[in-house]
What does this fold into?
Amino acid sequence: MAIISRIKTPRLYALNVERHRLIRWFFWLFGRRSFARPLSKVVPPISNRIFSHKSVLLRKLNNVDMRLQHNKVINLRLAARCINETIIRPNQTFSLWRLVGRPTARRGFVAGLLLSQGEVLEGIGGGLCQIANLLFWLFLHTPLTVTERHHHSFDAFPDSGRVLPFGSGATIFYNYVDLQARNDTQLTFRIRLWVDDRFLRGEIMCSGEPAYSYKIIERNHRFVYDPSKGKWFRENDLFRRIRDRQTGQLVIEEHLLHNYSQVMYDYRPAEVN
It folds into this structure.
């Protein structure tokens, strides 16, 4: 899902959004970063797969029209084609929006799920956050440096077949709420991303064997009631264990994220295991 925030006056909000988009375009065009792009052929080929993941396309979400879920799949297919076979060379930056471009009806994007302050809306290109979630999870298992990632401010839906820790996703909004990762290594990385009948699938290939392996650990997961606000919140901490690939020895365990998000659905404490 893409995420948006609103200002009371729609006209001012639209102007503010376009201002931010122009600023981002300025840095894209005149900044000093080299951006990764898809390549149909790379010599020598990059075929060493270091991590892969898949996420279910259609989920059962309370009070959400399944039409938006099916439309999301259309949007995911279009965006995945823009990202598939992207090559990230040393010192290059991956930018989701630089690759996907503006999701418009003219390009074939349709109305999908959007989130605004925890509320479910619909808009053209909605649902692309699923790609951002998957890519962020892939990046966490590589030596790529995530330089821009935005988190979901609200826990909008109860878990439905969740396989990843809470708070391990990323939200996006064209074009200034982006997901970016920089290659600070001497290796070259290749991203494969595609949609099949049931899943959004992704994998990262590498030109060599990275020195380390990575594992994400969740700790301190809980639901907390704030009596002053009369609301439930969900929190946890995510850590990353980095090990030497050859010896298996733990190099470091680093704290990645602390998540603390307002629960937007009807949460009942008895549901906690």
The chain has a mean pLDDT of 91. The first helix runs from residue 10 to 30. The helical segments are 10-30, 66-83, 96-100, 129-139. The chain has four helices and 16 strands.
